[in-house]
Write a structure and sequence with these properties.
By secondary structure, this protein is mainly α. The chain contains 9 helices and 2 strands, in the order ββααααααααα. It has 2 domains: about 120 residues, no CATH class; about 80 residues, Winged helix-like DNA-binding domain superfamily/Winged helix DNA-binding domain (Arc Repressor Mutant, subunit A, Orthogonal Bundle).
Length: about 220
């Protein structure tokens, strides 16, 4: 059988990603020993009992990670990021459950949603990359998604190394989506002058990143 796949922000996913078969969820729910008393555990967690959260972590870390490996098609980085986000959301939204099966189903849905959110975040990063440079580095002998990922890492690294004033301007313009007009008013310059300053910073970054990209492909 041919598996139909799609690309989401440079990440290859299968139809099972957004909706894993129920038999997979059921299998995951029974692969390890159930906790001794999920009613008591979830009740303690809902009251903010720190010891209960430690117990939950020990009981469910591996199960949730295995589940997220399944729904992400074995993509470890995405699975682990989604797992951390899942634990954060569990802490915020946990309530009392009267059965282990109901608790696990809630965790599975929460984890799957976190994986989707992680992919959406990556898509936003890719959009910022396209907006920032309007083109890919030339001459890269890589698949498109691999080149995008490497180019994005180079961009993030070089932005961190900018002088503080330039870095903050770029972060506010491209990551916080502030307009050149707002920035110009704050720095008491014309909007045109602010756009020119942003353009110069972009050109400088672009030259450095393209040089590094070409150097890497010729090593």
């Amino acid at each position: 059988m041919t598996v139909v796949s799609n690309h989401f922000a440079g990440v290859n996913i299968t139809p099972a990603f957004l909706n894993p078969p129920i038999e997979i969820i059921a299998k995951m729910a029974t692969e390890s020993e159930p906790p001794p008393d999920v009613l008591m555990l979830s009740a303690r967690m809902s009251r903010g009992d720190e010891a209960a959260f430690h117990e939950f972590y020990k009981l469910y870390f591996n199960r949730l990670l295995r589940f997220l490996f399944v729904v992400t098609g074995g993509q470890e980085e995405i699975a682990r990021e989604a797992l951390q986000l899942t634990f954060v959301r569990v802490a915020r939204h946990v309530r009392q459950f009267d059965s282990e099966a109901a608790f696990w189903n809630w965790l599975a849905v929460l984890g799957r949603n976190c994986a989707v959110d992680e992919l959406r975040k990556r898509k936003r990063h890719q959009s910022l990359l396209a907006q920032f440079f309007q083109q890919q580095p030339a001459g890269a002998d890589l698949k498109s998604d691999e080149a995008d990922e490497r180019f994005l890492k180079l961009l993030e690294k070089e932005i961190v190394g900018l002088p503080d004033d330039e870095r903050l301007l770029l972060e506010r313009k491209y990551f916080a989506s502030e307009t050149a007009r707002v920035l110009a008013e704050e720095f008491q310059v014309t909007e045109k002058a602010m756009e020119s300053r942003l353009l110069r910073i972009r050109w400088k970054l672009k030259a450095v990143i393209l040089d590094r990209s070409i150097d890497e492909t010729t090593d």
